[in-house]
Design goal:
- This protein is α/β, with parallel strands linked by helices and 250 residues long.
- 30% of the residues lie in helices and 23% in strands.
- The protein contains 9 helices and 13 strands.
- Strands 1-2-3-4-5-6 form a 6-stranded mixed beta sheet, covered by helices on one side. A 5-stranded mixed beta sheet has the order 7-8-9-10-13, with no helix packed on it.
- The protein is globular, with a radius of gyration of 17 Å.
Length: 250
């Protein structure tokens, strides 16, 4: 079985928004960035010595437009099918994230006012529908798509055979990736407790590093300590009746 290498592909800034290139027997792209970034991603793939036409699959981690905004464009540029979870089909098919966004803190409250978050992007139809754990060996990488709901209902991560977890927005660096190496919630979660349960389930698999959509890679032990503090914080909110999820907000 060939080793799978994880290569970050910056989409915005150096680390603010990331896609990833998985290199094995064949290349796989994880996440498609913001609208209009497909060609930039394809050019960076080529800069790593990979012909974009050789890409076997594009995995979209969830239905927010900074992760699927260029999925349709990347599909055209590479010819590769797009994989997405069935629970986020609504955003994929309409080109709009399911609203309202539920902020996790001050950053989310500020970002929720940004009109770009509420725009419609080019929709797409996943060629590979994810409903559970999905082995990617047939696509040329020693890795598995792992459902990790909570950030959105259809959020997924990708776990390689070497233990690298490409985690989407399961966890982030502080301030939308500006504070490197410091675990934090991304600006929004549909269901913070469900997301935390997904994160802890992935940590139980003993990943070697967590490669995130916003920021630099995170060390698992530091994330475990953060997750314990976050569990206590969410438990206090739950006890006070102040926790809110997407379902509660509908």
């Amino acid at each position: 079985m060939s080793r799978t290498k994880v290569v970050p592909i910056p989409v915005m800034g150096r680390h603010n928004i990331n896609a990833y290139l998985l290199l094995g027997r064949r290349p796989v792209i994880v996440d498609a960035g913001t609208p209009g970034s497909g060609r930039r991603i394809a050019e960076q793939v080529a800069a790593h010595g990979v012909d974009p036409a050789d890409v076997s699959l594009i995995v979209v981690t969830h239905g927010h437009i900074d992760h699927f905004g260029s999925a349709a464009e990347l599909h055209r540029l590479t010819g590769a099918p797009v994989a997405g979870h069935v629970a986020d089909l609504g955003p994929f098919r309409t080109g709009r994230a399911r609203e309202p966004y539920l902020p996790t803190g001050r950053m989310g409250r500020l970002m929720a006012r940004n009109k770009k978050l509420h725009m419609r992007v080019e929709p797409f139809e996943p060629g590979v529908l994810v409903t559970g754990e999905t082995d990617l060996e047939d696509f040329g990488v020693a890795a598995c798509i792992m459902p990790t709901p909570g950030h959105t209902a259809g959020s997924v991560s990708v776990l390689t055979g070497e233990g690298d977890l490409v985690a989407g927005d399961l966890i982030a660096n502080s301030f939308f990736g500006l504070v490197r190496g410091r675990p934090a919630n991304p600006p929004f979660h549909d269901d913070p407790l469900l997301n935390l349960a997904s994160l802890r389930r992935m940590l139980d698999l003993n990943p070697t590093r967590l490669h995130v959509g916003h920021g630099t890679p995170l060390e698992p032990d530091r994330v475990r300590r953060w997750a314990s503090r976050e569990h206590r914080r969410l438990s206090r909110l739950e006890a006070a009746g102040r926790r809110r999820s997407k379902a509660q907000g509908d």
